[in-house]
């Protein structure tokens, strides 16, 4: 995907100098930036998240300092957080992943990538000598997390539709004969194809050589999988040990946020304290309570039925896109039930216009909430036009 410059009002510098600037002028500039990005969202086809939300009425929250210090379940000396709201959010996400909140330890992270790191840090504590196995379709942050934690990463082949190949995993585990067990990072919603790894099959393949820990990177696909019937094998209900989910990719938020959930029995006991010795298994320790409040408000505005309806509509738009892109001669590909539709990589001007994520010869759209039937029609018309132009 080619880089798009951030809109900057003409003749306006952004440098922070010695003297204060005019607050009203700076506010107007930021408002203009917001209007520009809001206007462009129709042509952002699912990358990097759902922009269909309305939380402007919560602006007064920006005038208050919220800090969730330590674990969501512990008391702290400051009492300036919003932990009850965070716990309500965690209870919702525990439920959709097939767990009770009493059985999993969770927290709202700054992003799903922090939550991934939390899951892998837990896996390393449980199996300190184990290698990490992830597919060639896994998000690049898996490799980065392994580098930070000094964990050896073994790449496993994927099947044509993008899911991890369980037989290749079995082969690679057997080749290494790991004495310290195996850590498998499964993906629920791969970056380019939206594929979902079958963790039941992956555990069966890896445990032929010892103990297995399975972390599920469900940043882009967890909310979709939870509302798909039949449900794929992706969650605690199917044997996951830890899960990370994005709060903004499908749900829609003005800021990135992530949810980390880990089986409680995998974490060491810690003594509760007031501040210095607080019972805390989070990575960030001092965390943004604002993200928890926004997640809570967004989930309450939808309810469980509204969330199910949102996912259903998005799936319908994805299926519609397959048909329209097929007629446009773009060669679409789609894993049933997912929101991702791949197609032949178009000319640069089309990719730039629609903010398309591209890799190799493929481009993709993700039919999140703000992606409309009309936008799909216009994209299809652009793709058909480039095909006709090439034929001429």
Could you walk me through the main structural features you see in this protein, from its secondary elements to its overall organization?
This protein is an alpha/beta fold and 392 residues long. The protein has 2 domains: 43-54 and 308-391, Aspartate Aminotransferase, domain 1, CATH 3.90.1150; 61-300, Aspartate Aminotransferase, domain 2 (3-Layer(aba) Sandwich), CATH 3.40.640. Helix content is 37%, strand content 15%. The protein has 10 helices and 13 strands. It has helices at residues 23-40, 83-96, 112-126, 140-149, 166-176, 199-206, 222-226, 289-327, 348-353, 373-391; strands at residues 67-69, 104-109, 131-135, 153-156, 182-187, 212-217, 242-246, 258-263, 286-288, 333-334, 340-344, 357-359, 362-366. It has a 7-stranded mixed sheet, with helices on both faces. The protein has a 4-stranded antiparallel sheet with strand order 10-11-13-12, with helices on one face. It has a two-stranded antiparallel sheet with strand order 1-9. A hairpin with a 2-residue loop joins strand 12 (357-359) and strand 13. Helix 2 runs parallel beside helix 8, helix 5 runs parallel beside helix 6 (199-206) and helix 8 (289-327) crosses helix 10. The longest helix is centred in the last third of the chain and has 39 residues, at 289-327. The radius of gyration is 22 Å and the shape is globular. The chain starts with 22 loop residues before the first helix and ends with a helix. The model is unreliable at 271-277 (pLDDT under 50).
List keywords for this structure.
392 residues; Aspartate Aminotransferase, domain 2; alpha/beta; 37% helix; Aspartate Aminotransferase, domain 1
């Amino acid at each position: 995907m080619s880089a798009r410059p951030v809109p900057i009002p003409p003749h306006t510098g952004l440098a922070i100098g010695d003297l204060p600037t005019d607050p009203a002028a700076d506010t107007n500039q930021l408002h203009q930036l917001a209007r520009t990005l809001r206007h462009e969202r129709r042509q952002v086809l699912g990358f990097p998240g759902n922009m269909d939300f309305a939380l402007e009425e919560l602006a007064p929250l920006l005038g208050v300092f919220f800090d969730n210090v330590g674990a969501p379940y512990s008391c702290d000396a400051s009492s300036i957080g919003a932990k009850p709201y965070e716990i309500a959010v965690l209870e919702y996400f525990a439920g959709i992943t097939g767990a009770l909140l009493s059985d999993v330890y969770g927290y709202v992270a700054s992003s799903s990538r922090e939550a991934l790191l939390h899951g892998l840090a837990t896996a390393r504590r449980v199996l300190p000598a184990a290698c990490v196995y992830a597919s060639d379709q896994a998000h690049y942050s898996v490799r980065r997390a392994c580098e930070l934690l000094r964990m050896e990463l073994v790449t496993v082949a994927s099947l044509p539709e993008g899911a991890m190949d369980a037989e290749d995993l079995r082969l690679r585990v057997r080749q290494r004969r790991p004495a310290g067990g195996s850590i498998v990072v499964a993906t629920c919603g791969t970056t380019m194809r939206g594929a979902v790894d079958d963790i039941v099959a992956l555990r069966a393949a890896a445990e032929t050589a010892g103990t297995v820990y399975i972390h599920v990177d469900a940043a882009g696909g967890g909310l979709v999988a939870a509302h798909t019937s039949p449900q794929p094998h992706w969650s605690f209900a199917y044997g996951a040990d830890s899960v990370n989910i994005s709060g903004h990719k499908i749900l829609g938020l003005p800021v990135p946020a992530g949810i980390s959930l880990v089986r409680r029995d995998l974490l060491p006991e810690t003594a509760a304290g007031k501040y210095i010795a607080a019972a805390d298994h989070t990575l960030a320790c001092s965390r943004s309570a604002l993200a928890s409040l926004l997640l809570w408000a967004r989930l309450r505005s939808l309810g469980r039925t509204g969330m199910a309806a949102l996912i259903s509509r998005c799936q319908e738009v994805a299926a519609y896109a397959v048909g329209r892109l097929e007629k446009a001669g773009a060669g679409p590909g789609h894993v049933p039930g997912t929101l991702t539709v791949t197609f032949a990589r178009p000319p640069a001007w089309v990719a730039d216009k629609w903010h398309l994520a591209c890799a190799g010869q493929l481009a993709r759209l993700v039919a999140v909430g703000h992606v409309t039937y009309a936008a799909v029609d216009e994209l299809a018309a652009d793709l058909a036009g480039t095909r006709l132009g090439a034929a001429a």
